[in-house]
Amino acid sequence: MIVYGRNPVGEALRGRRAHTVKDIWASGGAAREPWLEGVKVKLVSGEELERRCGSNAHQGICAEAGGYPYVGSEELLKVSGEPLLLALDQIVDPQNLGSICRTAECAGASGVIIPERRSADVTPAVCKASAGAVEHLRIAKTRNIADFLGDARERGYWCYGASTSAEAVPYDQPDYTGRVVLVLGSEGSGLRPRVAGACDQLIALGQHGQIQSLGVSAAAAALLYGILHGRSKGLDKAP
Amino acid sequence: MIVYGRNPVGEALRGRRAHTVKDIWASGGAAREPWLEGVKVKLVSGEELERRCGSNAHQGICAEAGGYPYVGSEELLKVSGEPLLLALDQIVDPQNLGSICRTAECAGASGVIIPERRSADVTPAVCKASAGAVEHLRIAKTRNIADFLGDARERGYWCYGASTSAEAVPYDQPDYTGRVVLVLGSEGSGLRPRVAGACDQLIALGQHGQIQSLGVSAAAAALLYGILHGRSKGLDKAP
């Protein structure tokens, strides 16, 4: 798989599939950047890069790496301690998936689960949109998000679904200590009923404007950091 | 100015420049959507729409509206009560500017200030990326963000700059009651020293991953909702 862009190539070189990175191609300017010191780079033209990437967003560099190293969904659930997982149901826009993965990695999420179908895959465009975060993040695929949430609950996870429905509580009410899955639905229509039904609790961000339509990647950022904040407060209260 | 896409045209029809919307063009499918009932629409082909918009992201509809109705920066500062303003220094990517405006509108921010130069303007692409939020949001331009923050402080605003520097306090420490400006710097390099120096306090989101590079629109979402949460807690504590 081709990885393109400065951050994606840089993170691929130090991430989970670093050992699979083979050739690196760069145009003159990018090849001289200090972070590539000691790395073997083939000098090529911008046109050649664009041809290899199928995109003009390469920033002068691309690399050939192995396929994206998805982990098993079982492996995600087996993490010890108090993991924070993110389940993304039917996020089809690569920009959104990449942006959410970037935020999840920065927020220290333990992993991301996406469905096998009706979801963006971790493509080169997603790697780019994630600023390379997917190279460090553990991402798993599941046949069915609702079933995954059922498995998670059996293992002591508490599943919070982001929702704008009337049953949802304000997102800053729960304390979010323990094992947590945050569930986000699709860009257009939110959580499907079966997925919402598989959650322990529905949570909502306040919508105080006219448009009532927060973007899913903004919602992910507000909720992930809200959960981290809730956990820290929950721990303050702990005996 | 051409506004394109379903949400942008819909919000333009009920937003701050609704009276300036003249012609609306739509392809067959979009023209029959229920929200356009009673609205005069000219039927055109997809190619004609793409030609008018200069983009293929029109979703079958576009409209001719007046220029974007920026407000004066003085007007933003004069809002009574406890406004929450957002100052964006050198956000050049239209997608980021649009996405931040969308979140700001949903979070109930009172307005957004951007610099006259080295910033994306409110273009049709920004309207689209904001899902039409810019039609309701009050956006002002200023020659100099640092000077604007000085004016704001004179009027009793407290200016919080998002920063990853060592002087920054965790963002969830302040209570954010009163008149607040949240200041965000550019995608690549954050706050410029003079802008950071014009803030009362620097605040930081925790970065718990490998990549240490939260996107600016994700940071905006986490901070805006964090500020709303801090305010609600601050009010709980008030006598």
Please give a handful of descriptors for the protein shown:
homodimer; 239 residues; alpha/beta; seven-stranded parallel sheet; four-stranded mixed sheet; 34% helix
* Radius of gyration over C-alpha positions of chain A, nearest whole angstrom: 19 Å
Uncertain stretches of chain A: none
What letter string, H or E per element, gives the SSE order of chain A?
A: EHEHEHEHEHEHEHEEEHEH
Number of helices of chain A: 9
Q: Which oligomeric state applies?
A: homodimer
Percent range for β-strand residues of chain A: 15-25%
Main-sheet strand order of chain A equals: 7-6-5-10-8-11-9
Mean pLDDT over the full residue set of chain A: 94
Distance between the termini of chain A: 50 Å
Number of strands of chain A: 11
Biggest interface goes to:
A-B, 41 and 41 residues
Helix content of chain A: 25-40%
For the largest beta-sheet of chain A, the strand count, sense and barrel status come to: 7 strands, parallel
Query: Rough shape of chain A?
Result: elongated
- Helix and strand content put the structural class of chain A at alpha/beta
In short:
Two copies of one chain form a homodimer. Chain A has helices at 6-14, 28-31, 46-53, 73-77, 94-106, 124-129, 145-154, 193-197, 216-237; strands at 2-4, 24-26, 42-43, 61-64, 84-88, 111-115, 139-142, 157-162, 169-170, 179-184, 201-204.
